[in-house]
Amino acid sequence: MIWGQMTACFVLWIAYGLWLRGRVTRLAQYWQTMPATKRTMVAGLMLIGGLVLLFVGLTLVAALRQLTPNGLTPVGLVLVFASGLGFTDLQVRAAMGLAVATLSGNRETTPPPQPSKDGED
């Protein structure tokens, strides 16, 4: 039974990630409004936050003994689904933030290097 429950969760998490992918323009615009330093920090925190959320959710399932020999209880299934969905959301948004930061480079903070006047680089 656990395989069926986890397969259903996995399919829903992937579907949610694909749905977010369809909103890539809106996500990119959101990230582009932030200063480069803040963008990188927030995206990094979202990556770590997603992992923490997933770990806490799974720890709660274990601590509350929501895994039985027959699979997850309804409460355990909700905990696993919600923590996985939150993880997916934060990972997709953070990846977009880091992609925007990478593609935009340091243009906002550092001017490009200028060639020297005497021809030496």
- What coarse outline follows from CA principal-axis ratios? elongated
Strand-residue fraction? under 5%
What is the mean predicted local confidence, pLDDT? 88
Number of helices, counting only DSSP H or I runs of 4 residues or more: 4
Strands, total number: 2
Biggest β-sheet: strands ordered side by side in the sheet = 1-2
> Which structural class should the secondary elements be placed in?
mainly alpha
Main sheet characteristics: 2 strands, antiparallel
In terms of per-residue confidence, which ranges show pLDDT below 50 for 5 or more consecutive residues?
none
Helix-strand sequence: HHHEEH
**How much helical structure, as a percent, in the residues?**
over 70%
Computed over alpha carbons, the radius of gyration is 21 Å
User: What is the first-to-last residue Cα distance?
Assistant: 66 Å
How are the elements arranged and paired?
Layout lengths: L1 H20 L2 H9 L3 H28 L3 E2 L2 E2 L1 H31 L17
Antiparallel strand pairs: 1-2
Characterise the protein shown here.
- There is one protein chain.
- The protein has 121 residues and is mainly alpha-helical.
- Helices cover 73% and strands 3% of the residues.
- The protein contains 4 helices and 2 strands.
- A two-stranded antiparallel sheet has the order 1-2.
- Strand 1 (67-68) and strand 2 (71-72) form a beta hairpin.
- Helix 2 (24-32) crosses helix 4 (74-104).
- The chain is elongated and about 75 Å long.
- The chain starts with a helix and ends in a 17-residue tail after the last helix.
- The model has no long low-confidence stretch (mean pLDDT 88).
